[in-house]
Amino acid sequence: MMNQNCFNSCSPLTVDALEPKKSSCAAKCIQVNGPLIVGAGPSGLATAAVLKQYSVPYVIIERADCIASLWQHKTYDRLRLNVPRQYCELPGLPFPPDFPEYPTKNQFISYLVSYAKHFEIKPQLNESVNLAGYDETCGLWKVKTVSEINGSTSEYMCKWLIVATGENAEMIVPEFEGLQDFGGQVIHACEYKTGEYYTGENVLAVGCGNSGIDISLDLSQHNANPFMVVRSSVQGRNFPEEINIVPAIKKFTQGKVEFVNGQILEIDSVILATGYTSNVTSWLMESELFSREGCPKSPFPNGWKGEDGLYAVGFTGIGLFGASIDATNVAQDIAKIWKEQM
């Protein structure tokens, strides 16, 4: 029997893992029969699917209003998977046979929606975790959440906590001298959809990763004039030919940007293709599995298991392929313990 000190002033509510029930408590206390998965992106969906294959019940919560919110809400229109499809399929369900080798954004989203339907994955949406920690008194994880809709709070109690929020939970927004005086539009790449809104403009793309290159090419194809910041040996020449390459930024002024080589350009808009980062350390009270940067301390393939029933999925640095391997390892590990206790 669980120690009642775990539940503060609220009695526990034991729930079926696929259909969490409601409570009349101001702060709902929910005892999870199985693992709690935080995050309903590809990593969380893959983990839920493999758990279901092993007949292990679970609860999955997601702060956004849909599954795979990064893909559905924060990606540009021309995005495609950048590795062959066979390395992007999630466990238990292949891509449709008519998909190309590099599926489009919309094709991948449709696959994820079908995946969730196929495995009957029903996340608790609009529920954001604000604190999670292990309670040694009762040997359970306590996960406090808040509704993004009405602000109501809940506390989940679970033996296993699976962190599947991934490496791209929060956008990185660097600071630049004078940016507040620039005056033009400044957005992160997660807000960019298409270059059709930038026709005729000088646009500075900050960052030369896949997103920075893709967005710059898209801008060029919509008759904008893109400049991409590249801090490498290719500075000063066009690479590829449609993109103007510029060096690191020194500072912004009204309507202009000055680079470290003294060059000054008039620009209309800035797109920060500066990537994303984990947000795990902002809510998870733990120091053994995750580093201060919010990713597992042990590199792939050994970073999926922590102590006291804590797991990580999707922090491998190798995308969907790594997430699928993590999900399988985690689900198999929990299923073994689950069956021993049956």
UniProtKB/TrEMBL annotation:
Q: Which part of the chain is the CUB domain?
A: 138-246
Extract one GO molecular function annotation from the record.
Answer: monooxygenase activity
Q: Alphabetically list the UniProt keywords.
A: Auxin biosynthesis, Disulfide bond, FAD, Flavoprotein, Monooxygenase, NADP, Oxidoreductase
- Per its UniProt entry, what is the enzyme's top EC class, as one word? oxidoreductase
Q: What is its EC number?
A: 1.14.13.168
Q: Which PROSITE patterns match?
A: CUB
Copy the pathway line from the protein's UniProt record.
Plant hormone metabolism; auxin biosynthesis
Q: PANTHER family from the entry?
A: FLAVIN-BINDING MONOOXYGENASE-LIKE PROTEIN (AFU_ORTHOLOGUE AFUA_4G09220) (PTHR43539), INDOLE-3-PYRUVATE MONOOXYGENASE YUCCA7-RELATED (PTHR43539:SF49)
Name the record gives this protein: indole-3-pyruvate monooxygenase
Q: Which organism is it from?
A: Capsicum annuum (Capsicum pepper)
